């Protein structure tokens, strides 16, 4: 067989094994149809790795991820490991993978499936089809932080006491590479790029704007929009269908992608991709966590994980036909009325009448049966 890909599967904790298992089944089924071979090997990370090896990201998992073509991740974490000190917690596995694999661009598409219009909390959502490009390795999450005791006072004479601080830092190189990704994605889509920042207050944001303005002439077809993050939050709710690609810093992207996710219905529907430089392995995972409240009950919606496979095939491995097959199979399955509990709760009586309540495995079976 010609095209083979080394895929590292990391199911993780909670619903991770259920949703990642569904994604692996769909990957194997679509590969058979489209004539390529995914060589899938499974590794531990997160809470289950702490239980087995005492660390959230064992060296063998990281090395396998670094040597792979792509990583498919479920989710990590859960109350069982919440009492562990911060640097050994399951979530460190994700940060370790991002850093160790040099992943700096987090892509979060948010698309409202037409069949799920009634699941959106918005009254008239329109056609939502946007892509958030979030910087992943810089900014306030990685800047200098600490605390110190201060002798300063507030205006009323109260002692300030201890002061805690975090620092937002961004280099020209970090901003340039993520902005270029934003422009390139806009060129492949509807040619609109929105830079989200807080340039009215933050120095780093003004730096982002300056670099974006310097790069824009290289992409004359791309319409640029500049929005402050507070305004963008309002606009995402009031006119979501007017956004195409949004590019933004680590923290703003973190917050806005959850907002964008919610207006399309459920976190159980949204995939993500984390990419480094071209030619490097990418990491593909749903945006949701390990959902301990529904773990082991087959209630988890597998679509976010299945669409993460779709992103992997489309953006990273160049298997565009297979990717399209997954997209259409998901749309068809939803159009037939199949709903896991998270997307069966809203809606009017008219649409409820054709709803078929399914569990994780049944949803996956139906999607596989609908692959063309
Ligand atoms: P969560 O995303 O796990 O769950 C939030 C809510 O969404 C819950 O009600 C859950 O039942 C529901 N939900 C999530 N995924 C779903 C799916 N596929 N189908 C149906 N419903 C779904 O977020 P949380 O509760 O804040 O976090 C739980 C654990 O996950 C924590 O330990 C957290 O640190 C971890 N976490 C991990 C990741 C990751 O691995 N990338 C991301 C976020 C949170």
Describe the structure using short key phrases.
single chain; 372 residues; alpha/beta; Isopropylmalate Dehydrogenase; 10-stranded mixed sheet; two-stranded antiparallel ribbon; 38% helix; 23% strand; globular; binds nicotinamide-adenine-dinucleotide
Describe the structure.
It is a single chain. With 372 residues, the chain is of the alpha/beta class. The protein has helices spanning 16-34, 47-53, 59-67, 92-100, 172-188, 203-215, 229-238, 250-263, 303-316, 320-335, 349-352, 360-369; strands at residues 3-12, 36-42, 70-75, 105-111, 129-135, 145-153, 159-166, 192-197, 223-228, 245-248, 271-275, 282-286, 338-339, 356-357. The strands form 3 sheets. A 10-stranded mixed β-sheet has the order 2-1-3-12-11-4-5-10-8-9, sandwiched between helices. Strands 6-7 form a two-stranded antiparallel ribbon. Helix 1 packs parallel to helix 12 (360-369) and helix 10 crosses helix 12. It binds nicotinamide-adenine-dinucleotide (NAD). Residues 15, 19, 75-78, 91, 94, 267-268, 285, 288-294, 300-301, 304, 342 line the site of nicotinamide-adenine-dinucleotide.
């Amino acid at each position: 067989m010609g095209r083979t890909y080394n895929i590292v599967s990391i199911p993780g904790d909670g619903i991770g094994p259920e949703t990642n298992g569904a994604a692996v089944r769909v990957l194997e089924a679509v590969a058979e149809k489209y004539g390529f071979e995914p060589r899938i090997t499974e590794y531990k990370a997160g809470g289950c790795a702490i239980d087995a090896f005492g660390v959230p990201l064992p060296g063998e998992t990281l090395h396998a991820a670094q040597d792979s073509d792509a990583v498919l991740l479920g989710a990590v974490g859960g109350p069982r490991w919440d009492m562990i000190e911060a640097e050994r917690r399951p979530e460190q596995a994700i940060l370790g993978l991002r850093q160790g694999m040099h992943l700096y661009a987090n892509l979060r598409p948010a698309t409202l499936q037409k069949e799920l219009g009634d699941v959106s909390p918005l009254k008239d959502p329109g056609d939502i089809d946007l892509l958030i490009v979030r910087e992943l390795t810089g900014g306030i999450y990685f800047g200098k932080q600490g605390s110190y005791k201060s002798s300063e006072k507030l205006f009323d004479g109260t002692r300030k006491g201890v002061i805690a601080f975090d620092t937002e830092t961004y280099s020209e190189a970090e901003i340039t590479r993520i902005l270029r990704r934003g422009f390139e994605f806009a060129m492949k889509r509807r040619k609109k790029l929105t830079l989200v920042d807080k340039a009215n207050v933050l120095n780093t944001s003004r730096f982002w704007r300056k670099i974006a303005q310097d790069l824009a002439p290289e992409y004359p077809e791309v319409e640029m929009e500049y929005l402050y993050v507070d305004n963008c939050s309002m606009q995402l709710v009031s006119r979501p269908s007017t956004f195409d690609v949004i590019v933004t810093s680590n923290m703003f992207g973190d917050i806005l992608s959850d907002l964008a996710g919610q207006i399309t219905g459920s976190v159980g529907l949204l995939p993500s991709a984390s990419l480094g430089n071209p030619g490097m392995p990418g990491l593909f995972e749903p945006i949701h966590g390990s959902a301990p409240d529904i773990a082991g009950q087959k209630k988890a919606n597998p679509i976010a994980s299945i669409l993460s496979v779709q992103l992997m095939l489309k953006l990273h491995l160049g298997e565009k036909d297979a990717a399209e097959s997954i997209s259409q199979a998901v749309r068809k399955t939803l159009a037939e009325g199949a709903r896991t509990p998270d997307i069966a709760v809203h809606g009017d009586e008219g649409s409820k009448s054709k709803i078929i309540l399914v569990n994780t495995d049944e949803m996956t079976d139906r999607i596989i049966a609908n692959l063309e």
